[in-house]
């Protein structure tokens, strides 16, 4: 369920609580609905999307993207050839291996933040945590800069976990969280007595409730309660637009955008698990023009028994097995539907894992040199950027900073990396971090 953060000062014993009966509002004029539906094909053609694959816990890059066969640090998995000449990845990633021609594996990222909380914050914002100011995540920045004004859906949607938030951009750019991709969000439809779209009286009552809410919200704005009041009004306007639009059916992963059932073979290909079904939902969200999507797969903090955790023969498979099916099938579908050219992909976690395998047959936190992956859009896939030493302990070639990564992704989305946004005190802040970043040469 998408739950906007509401400042306490705005509650006024929160009048909205007493209007909760109409459940996020809904219902709009027929012409408004037709305009939204007519816009959907245009959004797909003209607007870019970002999909972030977030691997919470710190994925082992040495066992996925940067294997070291024959080295004491090499681990149990073997490398396999891929569609990109000379590029090898984990043997348990055969689906993704067929699409490496669309990917760039960056093997030389350095972040120097090996704490879960700090690493997560840095990899989402390009800034170190600062108690005085909350910086916006990449998803919120993308939402802020390129969301079409006529899009009825939220501009930033996170799947399976609440993504890092909008910081000083405000709650209008916060992620809409879909906790379970197999279940549509709660409160997305009006209550039973007002849900009949063919009942003119019910629709009139529903629309009148929305107008009443609008009067209350506008009064808050007129009382000069600051940006929070306007953001609050904007968020509820978005909620109303969503529940009024047939685009809300995008959250039903059993059906395609046109209402036809999803091919059971497609659902099976993605994998019957939250990550796989989240990747299917991400594809549908791209189809209707959502600019920022984050799909999460957690469980990568593998200090113990790392290899059977990453790959096993259970029904669900290990983490790498689920990653391969979900990510690989999504890339294939984006290609087949002509969407990959408009979609930028970013695979990452908060850090990598140590080359050294510890006494518990696991790997610990490692932020000195590790891997992330970018692809899609104008990114020149089929290559590796940077390299680590034979044992994986050091960067051998072309170091990449977090700022460089952000600059490259923004450039691929058509957002100038030198773009700045102003914080609440009016100070310009770089979207690529305090020190900025440069676009990786030859990647875009």
Protein model, in words:
The chain is an alpha/beta fold and about 450 residues long. It is built from twelve helices and 17 strands. The protein has helices spanning about 15-20, 30-45, 95, 115-125, 140-145, 200-220, 225-245, 265-270, 275-285, 305-310, 320-335, 400-410; strands at about 50-55, 80, 90, 105-110, 155-160, 175-180, 290-295, 345-350, 350-355, 365, 370-375, 385, 385-390, 395, 400, 420, 430. The strands form five sheets. Strands 1, 4, 5, 6, 7, 8, 11, 12 and 15 form a nine-stranded mixed sheet that branches. A two-stranded antiparallel sheet has the order 2-3. The chain is globular. The model is unreliable at about 1-45 (pLDDT under 50).
How would you briefly describe this protein structure?
This protein is an alpha/beta fold.
CATH fold type of the largest domain: Alkaline Phosphatase, subunit A
Q: Class by helix and strand content?
A: alpha/beta
C-alpha Rg (nearest Å): 22 Å
Tally of separate domains: 2
Number of helices: 12
> Order of SSEs, N→C?
HHEEEHEHHEEHHHHEHHEEEEEEEEHEE
Residues in helices, as a percent range: 25-40%
Net shape: globular
Going by CATH, the architecture of the largest domain would be: 3-Layer(aba) Sandwich
Distance between the termini: 36 Å
Number of strands: 17
Please state the average pLDDT score: 87
Percentage of β-strand residues: 5-15%
Question: Uncertain spans, ≥5 residues at pLDDT below 50?
Answer: 1-45
What's the CATH class label of the largest domain? Alpha Beta
Instruction: Report the biggest beta sheet as strand number plus sense, adding barrel if it closes.
Output: 9 strands, mixed
